Amino acid sequence: MHFRILGPLEIENPDGLVDLGGHRQRAVLAYLLLQANQVVSTSQLLSALWADDDAPMTARKILQNAVWKLRGVLSRPSRAEQGPELLTRAPGYLLRVPQQRVDLLDYQQRVVTGRAALAAGEVERARRSLGEALALWRGPVLSDLVEEGICWPELTALQNRRLDVMEDHFEAALACGRHQSVLPDIESLVAAEPLRERASGQLMVALYRCGRQAEALAVFGRVRSALVDGLGLEPGRELHRLQQAILTQDPTLEAPRTAGTWERAHLAPANRGAQPPADSPAGPATAPTPALPALQAPELSASPEPVTIPPAPVAPAPRIPSPATHESRTASVVMLRFGLGGELGRVLAEDRDRVLDVLTQIAREKTELHGGRVTSVLGSTVLAVFADGADPADIAERAVRTAAAVRDSLSVPTGTLTPPQAAVRGLTVHAAVASGEARLPRRPCADSPSPWGGGRLVDTCRTMLDHVQAGEIHVCDETRRHGERAAAFRRACASALAPWELHALHDEAADQPWGRADAGVHVSELELMQHTLLHTRQRSAAHLITLIQGSGRARTRLLMEFQRRVEEGHRGHVRVLAGTVPPPRTGDPLAVPAEILAAYCGIEPDTSEAHATARLRATLDGLGPADGADLYAPLARLLSPCPTTVTAAGTGEVLRAWGKFLARAARKQPLVLIWDDLQHADDALLDVVERLTQTHAGVPLLNVVGADSGLPDRRPGWATAHPRTVTLSLSPEAGDALDRLLESLLPPLRESEVA
């Protein structure tokens, strides 16, 4: 068996993923894995499962039952391997498991090995070992349990230590001369953790090595402002020394000439306020070296006694190219910024980096398709440069087309007078284009990115971008003048620096990747829905998908196609129930809940009331005795042929009973609910449907809702900021870029999950 907690909790054996049971059972196993091969007291486990004032009188009995069930789960490995053992050891329990079978223990050992190699100067081996350790992470530690309300200090400590390991890995990579490959990762970390001086210093070194001196110094300015304004502190001595070294282009900042070599004389770290000893390699005989802040990272170890290995500083960086290596050329600059709003909910809060990586890759592909180069990525902002060619009009046209291609691949056209709307609620695209003369490096090698990422055009783009609304593309006057043969522009009043806004491309259809003639169905949305269903089954967690489209015909076809695929692909393993909400005053507002209940119980429309109630009672008994008597009376009223049986006052009681029934049914067999025209539902039904995913979070229930724009108009906050919810605006056709974005909104499936 393999145990994985660096991400969602999983146990995998040769037959695939193991069913771990309910929330308490999984939480007990997770806490024991955090303390693997150590005795965990019963009081610790009880505190982890319940707050002091929430523990029931039977808490110890519940814990004993969970341990008993876990022993049954852990007794399934093949006889050929040494299996895990869950033993009773005073004052609690001991989970004995081989180190190589737990990703956390494997990770800790690789970190120890990598840091030891880093301290010994074996930077290439350190880079590989630390990189392999970080690759074991599949997301936030125990993310599925955190989503269900678990909040343990051990998880926060692990996440913080991971940041220390990331910085160690960056140092090793920089010492190997791999500043270009590691730069995007350092930028992402600094954007997420702006007060980490060590990572900021690493970013300064990496940017400087790429010839981006101004941006390296700007990083220091941002860190200093954040520390002074937020904490009243100045940056440490090491960061100040690094700033001075960059300003003076200190020769000691040269990168290692060959990977794997490491001159310790250039890499002597000094803790804040400390001086290197006189007999050290960086003693008085060696000139002071600008090193990164030596923030010591606590070591992760399976042993109770932590082993602290001091992190290594970064290798020096090369000098900025001399003026002779640059030339004045005509260029156009595109700056894109992706906004990730609260409507995307907890999905992006946990996986923001993965989604940004997909968006960045989309921007890179569109840029290269039009002959440009992405030269900088900082957080959600992407900078691309177009400078190849002698015709300024051609250069500007390609830049404008790139901005439009990125925006349109992630948007839904709304008409000629308004910008496109985001295909996924909460995602916005902002773009600005500036053209003119710029000092650029001479033609770079084809296998290395251009190191240029600053200058007047970039500053102009950055200022323009601050005034660009979602879906708009603003351009400077020179870009508009050169691009008139390919596009129509109109006045933009938001900024004097960006007086023009792209109105339309003259041959716009050719640039819209979603405009494929052979795309008959919404492939990406179908794949996302199927992907979510697999996660609903594997994680036993309820999910809600809302499809918004003004025209109901395409939406209805999509829902019908999804129902067909589920029924054929999950035959016998998933139950599908569907219904269409009638318009107001044309039918019973509880018609669809009654239709769904009747379909599950096998009650035909012409069935007598006596037979229907008998089928209902038999169905409830088949789901188990719990709450059956309490549910029978309100559900029987729901199935009554007389609509007046359910009064307005009793609607809430009936719908609550209906929701509990669905949760019990889903526990027995994974359930998919498909709604169409939900915008017609009354408020009581809308409340139940929206909250179903939250009130019954721990059951395999997928709720798929189709509606027109009337639903978000009535409920502007529909399903926003809730975990396991996604709202999609259907585009005319789904393209490759949108497909990848939708897939990125959920963690990738492994082959074992697909099987």
From TrEMBL:
Residues 1-97 bind DNA. Residues 270-328 are annotated as: Disordered. GO terms for biological process: phosphorelay signal transduction system; regulation of DNA-templated transcription. GO terms for molecular function: DNA binding. Pfam families: AAA_16, BTAD, Trans_reg_C. Keywords: DNA-binding, Transcription, Transcription regulation, Two-component regulatory system. Belongs to the AfsR/DnrI/RedD regulatory family. This is AAA family ATPase. It comes from Streptomyces chartreusis.
